[in-house]
Fold each of these.
Amino acid sequence: EGKGKKRNPLHDFKKTGELMLIKVNKTLEVKTKLLNTTEQCAKRCSRNKGLSFTCKAFAYDRVTKRCHWLSFNSLTNGVRKKQDHAFDLYEKKDYVRNCIIGKGADYKGTISVTKSGIQCQAWNSMIPHEH
């Protein structure tokens, strides 16, 4: 079952059409390269191949066939959204998801309070509970 079938790397990304992210914070990183398909961009972002940062999203310019890998996403401080008909934005679901699946071991989202509003324990703290 599933033999010979390759997993589509775009499955891990949330697509927003005709949107580009503009970095206001100059410390945020971007790398670009000509690539023929969004699948190639996604694969490289997922593996962080050839990138000096953790890829959280990429924008694909359909006109120039250029991939823009981003060290940030739409939830990052110092970033603004810009409507742009040439681009499609793909954000890693792990970084924009606001739900926790299972025990949340792979959660990278922004929620830091419980459903009842209690502040979550920091990962580097063993108080009030041990991990």
Amino acid sequence: PKGAMAFAGKYEFEGDENYEAFVQKIGLPSDKVEMGRNCKIVTEVVQNGNDFTWTQHFPGGHTTTNSFTVGKEADMETMGGKKFKATVKMEDGKLVAEFPNYRHTAEISGGKLVEISTCAGVVYKRTSKKIA
């Protein structure tokens, strides 16, 4: 499929919109809210066909890794560290995951990684630029 390998690479946080409103909606603990604010998260994506390993490196050495295969249920972890099961789908070149209390999409647009999380009408958008 066209653009199937488009996600592989390393991306550094560039900017976001609606962070405060979104983390309040999902009930993120305040220490985690501070940790994630304007956080220079580096997202590393390893892709082999429909198999993905998606790692987020936070400043200070904290790392979250989710491994999944498109179309198959996988064990995942949220921003707040909650564990859950989700099936990631591919829709129009976007990865789509239904988290317990929000919907998350990721796509490559103009060479950037654009992630959008939606919870009860609040849309949080995070853009990261490719660094490797």
